[in-house]
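FW: tagging you since you asked about this chain on Friday. Here's the raw sequence from the shared folder, copied in full. Didn't touch anything.
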Amino acid sequence: MWRKRLIVLVILIIVAAQLPAVGQTDNSYPYRGGRFAQLVTESYREGKAGDQRLFFEWLDKGYRESQLCLSGEAGAGVNGLIGCEKQELASISDASKKADAEIALGARLHKLVKAIIPKFSLERGFEFYNTEKHGERQCFLQSVLIAALLQDMGVNAGVAMVCKNSRGEETNNGHAVVLMKLSDGRDIIVDASEPQPFAHQQGLLVALNDYQYVEPVYEAGSYRIQEYTSASGGKTLATADVAPLDYDFIRSQFYYYRGERAPAGVLSKSRTKSGLKQSEKYLRTSVTICPRNPLALYMLGKTYLAEGNAKQARDTFQRARKLYSQFGWVPQSLWDPHAVGRTAS
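HL: got it, structure written out here
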């Protein structure tokens, strides 16, 4: 009997070792890959906006017509841009020089995205079809797009959510930025909501073995991050241990914005029963895709509260607070759920 138990224990250990850690795997969605295409497809499907290929064609056209398009890349559009930059980066063997080239590339994409997608819209800019039809973007969509392009170019990059901005103000995951993992072991933040390409955000939600809130430690006089400290206890974390948010979180967050910004929904000044139901539907989808997305649970709790479902609201707020606590930071609004305001944007 003890031998059978030992065999079972060994099998469980092997299986556990092979299971992916939250956030450390499945965090890629290169521009020309199936995962990025899924994000675009879901946007067009939810908006009943037609063929998702319209977005890629529009972006190609916008790039070719921009002043930032190099002559050798014009014919192939965005694919030409990706191919040229990927080839150039691959030819650099020195880690320091490659990091400098990656930083220059981040600055170029920051400028390019702002030029091609000139309008900023919290209400509609999270949908790819609104980017194509109206030239609109917001922080999350622009960050996912830049990260997807960088990934396709061979750069280790992704998205992080902001819990404390560059002025030290707390924000309940109310902003998104690109986190670039440079070849020299440093990190840097690209923020297309700012006039300059790089930012000194002071608190981020990232991925380690699980999601975690961290505070970047910047090199003196530089935007480069040399290490992190955990927001909960000041533990020092190496840049190598910190990863951008995984694909499930990214996909979940698009549904979060659909719920947050639903017409006559949870953040509307003129809520209706049908609008709140639409918010609830999208936020429940967001939580289903990524059950450990604390912001989605938080906003779902606000939706239940607005619908008059006090018990569901209380239970959902408790689940959200537990996750925030596990990740090392709890927004002030969650200590008094009935007094929460418009804390996410």
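FW: Strands lie at 119-120, 136-137, 156-164, 170-181, 187-190, 203-207, 211-218, 225-230, 236-237.
HL: agreed, and The radius of gyration is 21 Å.
FW: great, closing this out.
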